[in-house]
Structure formats: structure tokens, C-alpha cells
Amino acid sequence: MSFPHHTVTDYIEDVSPGSGTLPPRAWYASSDATSLSLNGSWRFRLSPTADAEDDSFAEEGYDACGWAEIPVPGHWVLQGHGSPIYTNHLYPFPVDPPRVPTENPTGDHLRVFDLPEDWPDLAEGGAVLRFDGVESCARVWLNGTDLGEFKGSRLPHEFAVGHLLKTADNVLAVRVHQWSAGSYLEDQDQWWLPGIFRDVTLLHRPVGAALDFFVHASYDHRAGTGTLRVDSDVDGRVTVSELGIDIATGDSVTVPVEPWSAETPRLYAGELATEGERIPLRIGFRTVELSDGLIKVNGRPVLFKGVNRHEWHPERGRALDLATMREDVLLMKRHNINAVRTSHYPPHPAFLDLCDEYGLWVIDECDLETHGFTEQAWRDNPVDDDRWTPALLDRAARMVERDKNHPSVVIWSLGNEAGTGRGLTAMAEWIKGRDASRLVHYEGDLTCRDTDVYARMYADHAEVERIGRHLDGGTHRRRELPFLLCEYAHAMGNGPGGLADYQRLFESYERLQGGFVWEWIDHGITHPELGYAYGGDFGEELHDGNFVCDGLLFPDREPSPGLIEYKKVIEPVAIDGDAADGTVRITNKYDFADLSALAFTWSYQVNGETVESGALSVPTLAPGESAEVKLPEPPVATASGEAHWTVRALLAADTPWAAKDHVVAWGQFAVSARRLPSVTATERPVAGGGRITLGPAAFDARTGTLRTVGGVEVTGLRLDVWRATTDNDDGAAWQTGIRYGPLWRTFGLHRMRHRLDAVEAGDDALTVRTRVASAAREAGLSTVYRWTSDGDRLQLTVSVTPEGDWTVPLPRLGVRFGLSAVDRVQWYGGGPGEAYPDSSMASTVGRWQSTVDDLQTPYVRPQENGARADVRWVELGGLRVEGAPEFFFTARRWTTEQLDAAEHRTDLTPGDTVWVNLDHGQHGLGSQSCGPGPLPQYHLRAEPAEFSFVFSTTAAPGAS
Predict the structure, then answer these.
(1) Is 61 exposed, middle or buried (0-12, 13-18, 19+ CB in 10 A)?
(2) What is the DSSP code string of 305-322?
(3) What pLDDT does 6 receive?
(4) Could you give the residue ranges of the DSSP H alpha helices within 136-186?
(5) Per DSSP, what are the bridge partners of residue 960?
(6) Which of 45, 305, 722, 746 has the smallest set of CB atoms within 10 Å of its CB?
(7) Could you tell me if 931 and 734 are in contact, meaning their C-beta atoms sit under 8 angstroms apart?
(8) Contact (Cβ atoms closer than 8 angstroms) between residue 450 and residue 442
(9) How far apart are CA 681 and CA 761, in angstroms?
(10) b/e per residue 396-429 (b: at least 16 CB within 10 A)
(11) What is the dihedral of CA 852, 855, 858, 864, to 10 degrees?
């Protein structure tokens, strides 16, 4: 008689970290020991529950020919099996720790493999099977033997398997459960994506091979020396040929060295040799300390210009390859980012190798977040429940042991948004006992009992300044600690605004040691109908919409305007000019590097066009030093007009992260002012045939609406105050303060009505008087359009006077009209990309051109975008428009209303009309999608305003 196989599932809801795994140890990319990657095509079967299938699939000889095949690493919900789920902090299952739903998607994975011919004899040494990342719980068999199970999705786990290996037909079986007790510890703001999403590797372990080892490489900035000691579980020798080092493990040696920093990432090639293995080492000498209330590296305070980085690829999710990781690091370096917080889990270990190599400070964060317990006032939070402490300690140990040999890691983080409790204290104590050479961070510890840094997220500018001035209160210990904004400037949709204002604070108060923008990349999932999908697009029961798309990169890794702005704001060289005496002040804002790697150039522009340029000699300034540098005499015999100097700091030679002439920093300042355009009114309005003509223009005689200018048809020109609200306009539902997006809708600004009061044809002007207001509201805008002409050009002067009780600022203030036959656009003003009042540092005054389509910024959820700032004139559709004063302009193939209604890019269908906005003002952006709104100085207040535009036709109407 045969009995059915028993399916064991108790481990899924066990709060322990697992069983059968080896102790954690240091990760290294390679050694001379043989290894075998088990990545590739695996057989796969998905079941709706954990016990739907028995364990027989793990036995040798099991026939899985009818199963699907999927690539590993990967997430099965992105490979056609089930669907992803996005929540910000809500658990997508009932909260009853450690219990999980009966409906628990379970993926059985099978891989049959042979050992390669060069694999050592099975009697020589042993072997280890390593999983670098599995979400969220895995049970593993090899050749029918149950090895054990583990939790801790973004952490490595190893099993000893040498005694089970065969030369051929090895059967590796892995059962992965989407939900487990571990899920309660992994409530990070991201997609829930089950699967084996990191590498699976078989490692031969020769007799006498290294087990764990710890590279201690400190730097004495006073003596200029480094001290090296490598502790190893197995005796061996450590050599660094460049430094003449050859010592036994456990011994120390002090020699002159060049230190490692994010700006000068000096690594020395070394080797750890034990009886059975040789492991390459990359050694960076540096010392991290808390001194004088500051985070110091190699004796100097550090200013973090950082970003939070989730791992993401729009098609592969968190299954990243080395090329994608390198692309991230190179993009960070090229945009002046010097630090990364690995939110909210340790990254693929190869990413930290890249940070060592290219130079990035790292806050390495543990795979821990229990944010969903905030819904019950943190009741039953695992971090304050002793039953869970072994799992918390296991996660801390696996992070620290794996990553301890990376010089880039300067701070350990206990996790994110997990409340407070005894378990966090236990983690902090263990980490400090294991590694006293780094600091400990945790934002949720407002007393800083367990941490070395006072960290906050999304504090507004005023509060940050108070903290910088030591006026924040709190415990005495906290007031003596340095401050980090571990999350700020929520980069969701159009924004963030206010970056420059934060940076000025960071650079003004020593205690403020910088921050980490949230976050690096939009987590959009490639979708055939929607372009990129976000929360709710897969029919989730609970979701948080496009809150998952809040990065400085679009899902395809194209930089957003927010990243371009951030690069400018945090540039490591300040360039400030004084046109009066023809000098420029250069300041080195690096913490460690001088300016010897940079070359400087100047250029002189008149009316946006460069008329002369050359090299600029700048002293090799040490960190913090400044110099006044004389500019050449302005070019003679140049055309009259508005003039600017532009000075750039470029890479003087190729570097590992960017090519020669890459722009690191720049500054631009005016030499002479622009003459504002004006039209002398010599023509009078002439009525006839239902029309009024004035110079080159024709108007509707009844409404006074502009119809044509010099033969160019113009549609629907009128005052416009509405914009398709941005994510930052709308804010977050949980915020208690003012959110202007919803308030604008309540006020009816998206449905303004235009009442015609009078059309007045005078001797030298056509005047149209209107009132613009929304239904059910008494507040309105008295708007007067005054048209004049000199025969060739047409001037519009708009006068706006608020009436009634205006309690909200305006989204925008300007005019909107439609044109046909528009493709290319040319303008003189700010560019090349979009800019708004509190996000305009990266906008350079010059002559620019684009297609209408390329003017659009492809935010995953469509919203206001694409405004060019400080525009003097623009040419499009056969018209030239000059402004007095400068203005914002946008041009789109859809209306603002259509843009406002769209949920995805694919909802926008180009029409035959290009809608143009010429704006006297725009409301600021802020970062209220999860943070503060725009600062008061960036509010577009409803107050009297007057602005003018001069219209004329271009040489080739309709061709521009």
C-alpha cells in the first residue's frame, strides 16, 4: 500500500528565520574555487495554496515535462503567472501575525543540472548552494533530500550540499511561497513580487577554503597612513603587492596609502590566500567616525547628496543584471549624486562592488519594514515582540556579514518605518558589537537611543532650518547628533520643487549633513496597452495607484527633469559671476577632491547665441576654497542685445564614469539687459463683414475673439488659469494641511466660465472686457484684453484684477490658444528642458528648438508638464510671439482638460490642433505628494497683474 506524500507547511507561519542554512558570511564576486551558475531556464508550476501539491516533485526522476518554463532570476508574476500587487504600506492580506491567508500562491521550481567537467572530484572538499534572493519564503531540496527553508527575501542563504552532489542529473527543487511570516517584516513601499529573483550559485569549497573574513582597513588622516588587518575563520596570508604587504591573517600592518572616498575611490588590489582558496580583495582605506557632533570620514565632515534606490527594471522587476546596476551607478555619478540609501533592503551585492569602484557613499539598509502596523497604532508590531527578535537579528547579521568588506558602506540602517521596540535595540546592539567601524541609522528612533544619527523624512524647510540651528528640542543625546533627511523631495510626477532651497540650508548649517531624495526610479511595469502600469492596473483589491512612480528616472531609465534639476542643485563647484567687474567666483564644494580633474571654459552669448568662447584658467582649489577669476574682455563688434556669460566646469580627461568634456557644473549671469518689445499703436480697428481687422489681425466682431494673424488661424485665445494637476498639487490623502489640487477643484478653477462684458473699438485699440469665474463662486477675475498694432505686428496687453474673496493661489495665469500645422518650435529663453518657479536652476538661457512632441515630459501618470521658463520669444506654427515680461510657454497636441483626464500616457490622443499656453506665472511644484508643498515665495497669488505679448508672422508661415 502506498500513502500520499505529506506536504509540510508549518514553517511558513513560523516566526523563526528558517532552518538548515549555514551561518552568514562575506560575499565576494569570485575566487579560484570552481563555481557553477544555476541561473537560466527552470521548470515551474504555480499552485493557489501552499498545500495544493505534495512534495513528490522534489524526488529524483519526477516528470515535470508538462510544467511551464521560466527564467531564473525572475518573478513569476511578471512572467505570465499571476499578477503583481502594489501597496505603499497596507498589507494585502488580513493582519494577524504570523498567520497568512490560505490563498497563498506557491511556485514550485525545478532545475536538473550536471556538474561541469572541470568540477573537482566529489571526494575533494565540499560544496555550498547559495540563493542571493527569494521572495518571501523558500523550501529547498537537492536530489530528494530536504535541505531546509528560509525567509528574508533580500538576503543571502546558503546550504551545505557537497555530500549530496552527483556528477550528473542533480535535481534541485525549490518551493517558493508568496506569503509567509516573513511578509510581515517586508512591508516596503513597492510591488509584492514573489520568486527567485537573484542569482542561484553552486560553489565548490576546497579543503582549507575560506569561510568568513573581515577586512579592516582604516585611515589616519593625520599621518596619511592606512592600517590593514584581515580576520579570517581559516588561517591564511594577505598580500597587497602595490603596498608591499604580505602578512598573516589576524596581523596588522600600517603603511602610507591614498585613502578611499566617494570622490576619490582609491582601491588597492589584494589577495586572501588560504590553504584551499585564493580570493581577490579590493581594499579601500577609510575611517568613519562620529566626531564633534558630525559624521566624518577620514577626518572631514561629509555632505550627502544622495538618493534612495529601490531595485527596479520595468520588465524584470527586482531581478537586475550587472549592466543595469552599472547603468544606475554611472547615471548617479554623472548627475553629481554622491550617496545612495539602499531603500529598504540590501541591494544585489554586486551593486556595492560598483559603489566601491566608482565612488558612492552607502547607507546599507536592512530588509525590514512593518509599516502596515500603523493602521492599528503599532499594536502587535513584530519589532516589539520578543518572539520575532531572532528573525530580526538574523536579518541584521546577514546584511552586515555579507557587506562588511565594502568601503562604500559607511552607515548601517536597521530598516525603515517599523515603529520602535526591543527588537530594534537588539539589532543595534548586535551591529555595534560586530562592527564598531560604522555608524547606525534608523529614522523611526526619534529619541536616537539606538542610533548615531538624527534622521527624519519629509521635514519641511522651516523645520530643517530649526534643526540646523539646534532649536529642535528633543533629548540631549539627539541634539548632539548630526542630522540627515533620509527621505525628502518626493520625486513623484512633475517635481520635486524646492530642491535648491533645501540645499542652501544644508550648506548653511554644519549639523545638516544632507539628504536622500525619494527616490531613484519610477516602478512602472511595461504594459502593452497602458505603456507603463502602476497600482490598480492589475485588479488589485487594495492598491496605492501611481504612488509607486516617484523617481528621478522614468521606468526606462531616462532622466526626468527632476534629476536634471538635482544635478544642478548639488553640483560640486559653485560658479557665481559679477558682470560689473568682469570676474567670476569659483568655489570648490567637494569634501575631499581638489579641482585638478576639471577644465573650465567660458562663452559669451548675445540674444541667446554664442559669439565667442575659450578656456578659462582656474587655480587648483582645495576643498572649500574659492578664487576670483578674471573673465576676458567682452567680444568687440558684436550685435547689440541681451548678453550673458556662461562658465562651465568640464572633466579634463576621461574617467571611469564619464568621458572628457562631461559637464560637471556651470554658471550663467547677465551682462546686459533685454529690451522689452513694444508696439507703437498706429493702426485703428476697422469693422466690416462680421469681423474687425487691426493691422495683420482679424477678430470676430461680436465677441472680439482673435481669428487670424497674418493669415495664421488662431483658435480660442482667452485667459487660462487651470493646469492638469500634478501629483504634488494633489498631495496625499493622509495629509492634514492644505492640498491645492483638490482645493482648486472645489473652487472650480478647472471649469471657469468667460463672460463677455464689452467689445470696444477705439481710435488705436480694440478692447475686450470679460469676467472669468466658476459657477457657484463669487470670486472672479476681471480680465481686459487690449489689442494694438503698428501695421506689421500685433500687441496684446492682458490686465487681470481679482474680484471677491480669493483664498487660494492660481495654478497658472496666462492665455491659451490653438494653432494648426505646428511641428517644430524655436524659442529664446530657458531650456532645453521644462522648468517651474521652484524647479528652474537647470534652465539655461539660450536659443533652443524642438518638435511639439519632444516638448512633452512623459510622466507615467499624465499631468502638467513641459513648460519652458523665462522665454523672451517663441516661434511656432507661422507665428512669432514676444513677451513683456518673460513668460512660460507650453505646446501640446491635446487640451489641458484632456491631459487632466488621462490616467496613462496611452489615454492621450494627438489632435489636429496644437494648444499653446503663454503664461505670465505658474504656481510652484513643491513635493506634497509626500512632503511639503511649495514655499510661499513660489505661490501664484491672485492679485492684479498686467502682461503683454507681441504677435507677428515668421518668414515661412506654418513651417516652423
Answers:
(1) exposed
(2) EEEE----BTTTBT---H
(3) 61
(4) none
(5) none
(6) 746
(7) no
(8) yes
(9) 13
(10) bbbbbbbbbbbbbbbbbbbbbbbbbbebbbbbbe
(11) -100
Across the strands, what pairs with 814? Answer: 720, 919
Whole-angstrom distance, CA of residue 157 vs CA of residue 398: 8
Residue 82 cell numbers, joined: 499571476
pLDDT at residue 903 is higher than 50: yes
pLDDT score recorded for residue 484? 98
Catalytic residues: 417, 487
Distance CA 816, CA 797 (A): 14
The number of residues making up the chain comes to 960
Contacts of 821 (CB under 8 A, 6+ apart): 877, 878, 958
Please check whether residue 297 is in contact with residue 288, taking contact to mean a CB–CB distance below 8 angstroms.
yes
pLDDT digits (tens, 9 = 90+) for 442-482: 999 999 999 999 999 999 999 999 999 999 989 999 999 99
For residues 110 and 60, what is the distance between their CA atoms, to the nearest angstrom? 11
Q: pLDDT grade, residue 637 (50/70/90)?
A: low
CB 453 within 8 A of CB 365: no
User: Does residue 811 contact residue 721 with C-beta atoms inside 8 Å?
Assistant: yes
C-alpha cell at 854: 519632444
Report the distance separating Cα 436 and Cα 430, nearest Å: 10
CA distance 797 to 88: 48
In the block, cell 499594536 appears at: 379
Q: Can you state the angle between helices 322-334 and 349-358, rounded to 10 degrees? A: 40
Q: Which helix (H) or strand (E) holds 389?
A: helix 389-403
Rounded-to-integer distance, Cα 954 and Cα 826, Å: 11
> What is each CA distance from 676 to 33, 697, 794, 884, in whole angstroms?
74, 22, 15, 6
Mean pLDDT of all residues in 295-310: 98
User: Bridge partners of 502?
Assistant: none
User: Cα dist. 919→812, 814, 817, 859 in Å?
Assistant: 7, 4, 12, 21
The three cell numbers locating residue 114:
550536471
Compute the distance between CA of residue 748 and CA of residue 751 in angstroms, rounded to an integer.
5
- Name the grid cell of 8: 509540510
- For residue 19, the cross-strand partners are 149
Query: Cα(58)–Cα(60) distance, rounded to whole angstroms?
Result: 7
In this predicted structure, the answer to whether residue 957 has a pLDDT above a threshold of 60 is: no
Residue 56 has φ and ψ, to the nearest 5°, of -65, -20
> Who contacts 66 (Cβ-Cβ below 8 Å, separation ≥6)?
none
Q: From CA 727, how far away is CA 742, in angstroms rounded?
A: 11
Q: Contact 915/644 with Cβ under 8 angstroms?
A: no
Q: What are residue 265's DSSP bridge partners?
A: 260
pLDDT of residue 580: 81
Helix (H, G, I), strand (E, B) or coil at 747: helix
Three cell numbers written together for 129: 548552494
What lies within 8 Å, CB to CB, of 750 at 6+ separation is 722, 744, 897, 900
Question: Does residue 848 contact residue 832 with C-beta atoms inside 8 Å?
Answer: yes
Cell numbers placing 54: 505534495
Tell me the one-letter amino acid at 333: K
* Maximum pairwise Cα distance, the chain: 110
Which amino acid type is present at position 434? R
Q: Check residue 45 and give its pLDDT.
A: 98
Condensed to tens digits (0 to 9), the pLDDT of residues 499-547 reads: 999 999 999 999 999 999 999 999 999 999 999 999 999 999 999 999 9
Q: What's this model's pTM, rounded to 2 decimal places?
A: 0.97
Say if CB 485 and CB 459 are below 8 A apart: yes
- State the cell numbers at 14: 513560523
CB-facing half-sphere around the CA of 920: CA atoms within 13 A: 24
Question: Cα(64)–Cα(56) distance, rounded to whole angstroms?
Answer: 11
What DSSP state is assigned to residue 442? -
What is the residue type of 904? H
Distances (CA, A) of 925 to 562, 731, 756, 865, 899: 11, 11, 32, 11, 17
465: left (phi over 0), alpha (psi -120 to 50) or beta: alpha
